[in-house]
Amino acid sequence: MGLEREGAHLTVIQNGKVIINLWNGYSDSESLREWNRNTKTVLFSTTKAIAALCLAMQIDRGRLSYDDLVVKYWPEYGQCGKHMTTVEDILTHKAGIPYLDNITIEDVANENRIMKIMEQAKPLWKPGTATGYHAVTFGWLIDGIFRKVDEKGRNIKTFLQEEIADKYGIDTTIGLSKEEFKSLARATQPGLLEYARDVLFDLRVIIMLAMMYAQPSNSLAARIRIHPSWLPLNFDTVALNDPNIVELNMAAIGGVSDAYNLAKLFSLAIDGTLLSNQTLAQIIRPTITNWHLEQVFLYPFVKEHVLVWTSRIRLPSTEYRF
Hints:
The protein has twelve helices and six strands. It has one domain: Beta-lactamase (3-Layer(aba) Sandwich), CATH 3.40.710. The strands form two sheets. Strands 1-2-3 form a three-stranded antiparallel β-sheet, covered by helices on one side. It has a three-stranded antiparallel β-sheet with strand order 4-6-5. The protein starts with 6 loop residues before the first strand and ends in a 39-residue tail after the last helix. By secondary structure, it is α+β, with helices and mostly antiparallel strands. This is Beta-lactamase family protein. It holds the Pfam family Beta-lactamase.
């Protein structure tokens, strides 16, 4: 389907109606396992949007504000010069903690331990003064805030299950048990031909990749690619094919779903079911619009709450057109 060499699933929902729901190819080409309507995939950084949506629901409920200091809810986070970090700083990758040294799988599996590690982390820049992509740490930061503001002390994983998945029949989770792992498509890395194809579609890709991968081995981008050591970001490894890693609670990269359920989830986010129009307008408008050099990619991204902003999303009054 499309340009995917393995398999894929595409769903488009407009005004609550399913317009497109197609799948084809293999979920694992080596074993010739075909893709079906229930095949799930690891969502990688799309998980960040789900985490941010859950936090926005808490904002809708009056539990916190984007302008609030993190220490208002999580006092222990104020160590090592982080006391002026805002919730907005976390969501726009300004926290100054784009990676952590020497963190283990056992650390991540223990919620209280990972929160303690985040509390004691020393930022690489003064929070709020620069932005640099927090590929994995984003999830632990936002989850730490979330646990403090949720009325039941739930993490994002549990909130997603109870407040969205169970209520609306959406099969989307953060993490996946080993027993369910067989339903997951095997992720693969693009080859050189695919990278070349993508560059031809958008020449900005080669500029960004060149600036990121041409940096020295002690650069921030290089360190992020090897920390944590069990989750490397390189051209020949996909750590999220390991069931021991996929089952972890990682609200930045560990989401699991299929295209239909993911489309259904975000359809509920924009039709007023999960969020008010006021909060939705807040989260999809750009928050970083001035020219700046992104600390990790060394590329001047425009950002909103979570990732990057695209002008293709327009807001005529309170009507949302995607």
